[in-house]
């Protein structure tokens, strides 16, 4: 252990592989311990689920899923391969498979993390870098959602690692990996700028640098274009350059906004939420240690870090607080964290002890954080089960996020599981919702639980007046204290003449208290306007 920092050995020595296997195994165990068994995927993951399902069944790229067009279709396209090879008549099994795939991707990312860290440190510290990454509580939580980040992180990191190798062929392959990353999340396109500049700068003395660069760009384009053509054919736009143009317009029109206190606060808040608690402790000193002695490879890391930060700046301009935009930085932050440990080892010269303490601190902070932020499994299961009653009883309801996600995810297949798999177009979305809030704004600020009030109606009568023109049939009220006052009044006061209670979850021993009221429009017309 005393020579872990300095020993130069093959990247994947026998001991390294054994330790990586142990780290990966523990990472799997922790993820499966927090696996949300029996809870369906929701929001973006639900849309990706149906896209992958439709593609695996039909062999054609869907134009939309329930009216939603998916520009970042790289992840559900990749997922469709597993759906195609899988065989079950239970949609839950496919949703679990979706989560299993992201878990596996998240854990195997320790391999390029190790290679990245090994480029700058010895094998022992590189192993520590994988621990910093794979046990990040935010990474663990994200890997359980079945969404795009694990694959995007793996691809962008692979691009960086391949480019850092002293092999021209691997640098060419890095352009291919970047193209794949762009198909998963369009913001990956920003990396083509530093990658191109670094390629040209590193080979500036080569007389045939321009042909070599054109070859690299050709590889990038060849990987990218087929999917872009398919997207244009299916949706009418390519999903990368079309979205990037819109983002640039926001940047240029947001010059004043970015200096506002709200935008700055969004950036600080997103960064703080993302790096807390582990990176908050280990990164600051590590940045100093990493860049104290600079070389070309470190400038490569710096440029990747800078350009990967642009999406979070873009989000902040739009006043969006979203920590997951920073997750692609986590492998680099893990590298920086190693240098903090390296500084401490250099000062105290107690390698084994410091290694043990660091691993203990990382695992302890991760588990404490996960325990504190883990979902209320019982509440989610009850919201899911009660969602069946809402689906069975109502046609058009008021939205009641976040629990309403388990209602909108309920179509006919939920009642006849033996019919799955089926195309999304062959299912019926029976229940529709009417917004009470401007949820787009609420979601951007993540204020649903703190009382976002963009579309509040002044009274129940005004909401029903609006809703009747959109087919509103039932009012859903629960015990959430952040609901609008008129919804809370409905929940607490069952004596409203034109509302008839048809369901009360407390009568079925649920802790999650929800009531369903049917609207009698004849009585409403007689009483509601008086």
Report on the architecture of this protein.
Residues 1-8, 254-258 and 441-453 have low confidence and may be disordered. The chain has a three-stranded antiparallel beta sheet, with helices on both faces. Strands 1-2 form a two-stranded parallel sheet. 61% of the residues lie in helices and 4% in strands. The chain folds into two domains: 19-37 and 109-373, no CATH class; 377-528, no CATH class. With 530 residues, the chain is mainly alpha-helical. The chain is built from 24 helices and five strands. It is globular and about 85 Å long. The longest helix has 27 residues, at 209-235.
Average pLDDT score: 87
What is the count of structural domains? 2
**SSE order, one letter for each helix or strand:** HHHHHHHHHHHHHHHHHHHEHEHHEHEEH
Strand content: under 5%
Shape summary: globular
Helical content class: 55-70%
Radius of gyration: 26 Å
Let me know the number of strands. Answer: 5
Q: Biggest sheet, strands in spatial order?
A: 3-5-4
Separate helix tally: 24
Low-pLDDT runs of 5+ residues are 1-8, 254-258, 441-453
Task: Find the structural class using helix and strand composition.
Answer: mainly alpha
* Cα end-to-end separation: 82 Å
Q: How does the major sheet shape up?
A: 3 strands, antiparallel
């Amino acid at each position: 252990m005393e020579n872990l920092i300095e020993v130069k050995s093959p990247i994947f020595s026998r001991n390294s592989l054994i330790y990586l296997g142990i780290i990966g195994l523990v990472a799997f165990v922790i993820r499966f311990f927090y696996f949300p068994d029996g809870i369906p995927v929701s929001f973006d993951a639900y849309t990706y689920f149906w896209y992958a399902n439709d593609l695996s069944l039909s062999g054609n790229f869907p134009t939309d899923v329930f009216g939603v067009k998916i520009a970042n279709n790289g992840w559900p396209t990749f997922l469709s391969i597993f759906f195609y090879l899988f065989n079950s008549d239970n949609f839950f099994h496919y949703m679990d498979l979706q989560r299993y795939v992201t878990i596996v991707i998240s854990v195997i990312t320790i391999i390029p993390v190790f290679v990245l860290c090994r480029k700058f440190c010895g094998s022992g510290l590189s192993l520590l870098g994988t621990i910093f990454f794979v046990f990040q509580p935010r990474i663990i939580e994200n890997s359980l959602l079945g969404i795009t980040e694990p694959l995007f992180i793996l691809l962008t990191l692979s691009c960086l690692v391949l480019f850092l190798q002293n092999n021209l062929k691997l640098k060419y392959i890095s352009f291919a990996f970047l193209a794949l990353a762009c198909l998963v999340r369009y913001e990956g396109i920003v990396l083509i700028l530093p990658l191109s500049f670094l390629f040209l700068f590193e080979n500036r003395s080569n007389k045939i640098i321009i042909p070599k660069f054109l070859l690299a760009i050709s590889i990038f384009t060849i990987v990218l274009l087929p999917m872009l053509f398919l997207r244009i054919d299916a949706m009418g736009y390519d999903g990368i350059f079309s979205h990037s143009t819109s983002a640039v317009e926001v940047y240029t029109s947001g010059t004043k906004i970015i200096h506002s206190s709200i935008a700055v606060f969004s950036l600080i808040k997103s960064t703080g939420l993302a790096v807390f608690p582990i990176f908050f402790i280990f990164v600051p000193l590590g940045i100093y240690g990493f860049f104290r002695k600079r070389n070309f490879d470190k400038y490569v890391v710096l440029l990747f870090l800078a350009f990967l930060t642009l999406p979070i700046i873009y989000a902040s301009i739009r006043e969006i607080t979203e920590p997951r935009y920073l997750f692609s930085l986590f492998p680099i932050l893990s590298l920086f964290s190693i240098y903090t440990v390296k500084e401490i080892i250099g000062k105290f010269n107690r390698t084994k002890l410091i290694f043990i303490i660091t691993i203990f601190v990382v695992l302890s902070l991760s588990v404490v954080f996960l325990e504190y932020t883990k979902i209320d499994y019982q509440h989610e299961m009850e919201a899911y089960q009660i969602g069946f009653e809402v689906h069975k009883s109502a046609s058009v309801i008021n939205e009641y996020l976040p629990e309403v996600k388990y209602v909108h995810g309920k179509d006919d297949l939920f009642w006849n599981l033996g019919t799955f798999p089926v195309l999304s177009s062959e299912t019926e979305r029976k229940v529709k919702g009417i917004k009470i809030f401007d949820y787009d704004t609420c979601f951007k600020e993540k204020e649903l639980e703190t009382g976002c009030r963009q579309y509040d109606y002044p009274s129940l009568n005004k909401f029903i007046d609006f809703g009747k023109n959109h087919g509103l049939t039932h009012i859903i009220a629960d015990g959430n204290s952040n609901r609008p006052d008129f919804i809370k009044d409905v929940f607490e006061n069952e004596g409203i003449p034109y509302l008839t209670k048809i369901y009360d979850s407390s009568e079925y021993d649920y802790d999650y208290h929800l009531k369903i009221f049917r609207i009698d429009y004849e009585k409403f017309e007689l009483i509601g306007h008086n």
